Amino acid sequence: MSERKEDAVLSWKPKLDFFPSTQAQQDNRATCKGESSQLYRPSTELVDGLFLPPNDPKKLNKLMKKQVKDTSGKNWFDMPAQTITPELKKDLELLKLRTVLDPKRHYKKGDSKSKSLPKYFQVGTVIEPATEFYSARLTKKERKATLADELLSDRALHEYRKRKVQEIEEKNRPAGVAKWKIKKHGKKRR
Prior knowledge:
Helices cover about 40% and strands about 0% of the residues. It is mainly alpha-helical. The protein is extended and about 95 Å long.
């Protein structure tokens, strides 16, 4: 009866023996031999619901590497790696192709030829000062959710793209007798 009162008072009581017998250690090793290579222990192997880290240093290092957050390092103020959504992916691809968008702006080469997207980056909002209210400010109608939407709604960029597409089509269009030969091959004789 006195033991039950003690159990009611203590909510958690460790089941670890401070001086385990050699027989108990041998029994424990025999049961856990096949599953000792696992990092994850099922609830049956937990001691009072607590996870015990593995004794093997290699397994412990592997477990610690999984728990470390992915950052860019101290030199870049531990900037975390972003999860890439489809909207962010489109914006990053547009930033890589920014040399094509405006013919009057020239950028450094950078990594525009690499096919991989950056792993560490941050997205922010530019807030204009009050002095640029009339000069360089975007109106509410011009502001869009993503960079791709802003570029698609830009009228000057639309005219530039249209002119460039027409120039490329004219350059690739056959001239003179060649265009008549193409039409001739397309017709079927009876």
